[in-house]
Amino acid sequence: MCIRDSINAEYGSSFSSKMPFDSPLKAGAALDLTKDNRAVVAEGDLIKIHTQSTTIDGWSLTDSLTKKNFTPRKLILQNESHNTLILTPDRKNVVQYYDTERGALLRRLEMKNFVSDLELNIDELAHKEKFSNLKQSSVLENVAIAGNIVCNVQWDPRAKGDEFIITDKSEVKTKGKKFTCVATTGKGHVAVGTNTGEINLYTTPSKSGKWTKAKTTLNQIADPVIGVDVSKDGEWILWTTKEYLALSKTVVTTEAGNVISGYEGKGLGANKPSCIICRLSPQIKEKYGIGEVNFSPAKFDNGPFLPDDGVIEDKIVTSTGPFVVNWSFRQLKHDYNKKQNDDQGLETSVLPQVLKQSDNVVDKVFEYGDPAVVVLSKQLSRIELD
């Protein structure tokens, strides 16, 4: 019996994500959620699927070349969660492509540039469009970063070959500058963070895969960017540094009354807005016993969804050590607009919700259609946020 049949035989095609589940884990390494909010977890070199009260054993992760088991750097669900992409730890130019429901390795894909036949090490991988993973698609289409390169990668199972093809790319040529993180909007616009504190905004690559230079570079801060996320409509961008988060708009109205986007046309140019900074105050750190802050990449929540394919985003969540930290996106937007109008400075006055877990947080993912977050530490927990 395959994994899907084992789950469905007991729970039906879905399970009630309203019930919290606290499952002990051997060694949690990576986490993602299916379309119906089942938790797919890499426990060391073993993939398991967690429902509200039961864990379904999945499959072992074995390098198809060396035949050795490995713990993944990241797992990414695609094609309505039917398939899983696994980033291997040692061979960074390789992506292993699995059938999530059967646990079968379908292909071992190598990332290559079709122009120069150059192998590239994948640092990070994102969906072609935000939430495109929830749609059916047999063709793998993603955005990847590799050193100082951001590129489209594609693999069509109907074609021969096992190469994750780079259809086109853009790169930064400043010495010492590297891309560190990537996110995409619902339209496929791309935001990329750098180790020098900048955010590059790219328009959706054309159907031919051609990239243009970054339309806008946001450089309000100087600290390395370790995570970036964007709202589905692309109007807000959130980036993470070690000790604080930064939030900014990417769509502004000029003095002449023109609405311009950082992703399109000529970009923002001289109209780049300031950002608002979210950090833990000394009072918050003392109250909860938080020592050194080392934030994980912050994310917008994933719901609820709207009939017009939109989504209501109301939470921003990060973590540091065993603490989950939640800011109200609604309150931050209000504070942001107030500070832009009154020139009150960059630091937000909005206080976060802080929730302590039993162990350090390894990973966290928002549920789809519900502003609750699933947290991976030494156990798997579901948290309802205020």
Question: What does it look like?
Answer:
- The protein starts with a helix and ends with a strand.
- It has helices at 3-11, 282-288, 329-342, and strands spanning 23-24, 28-33, 39-43, 46-50, 55-60, 74-78, 83-87, 94-99, 104-113, 124-127, 140-146, 149-155, 163-171, 179-184, 190-194, 199-202, 216-218, 227-230, 236-240, 245-249, 251-253, 259-261, 276-278, 299-300, 315-320, 323-328, 353-356, 363-366, 372-376, 379-384.
- The chain is globular, with a radius of gyration of 21 Å.
- Strand 4 (46-50) and strand 5 form a beta hairpin.
- The protein is mostly beta strands and 386 residues long.
- It contains 3 helices and 30 strands.
- An 8-stranded mixed sheet has the order 6-7-8-9-13-12-11-10, with no helix packed on it. Strands 1-30-29-28 form a 4-stranded antiparallel sheet, with no helix packed on it. The chain has a 4-stranded antiparallel sheet with strand order 2-3-4-5, covered by helices on one side.
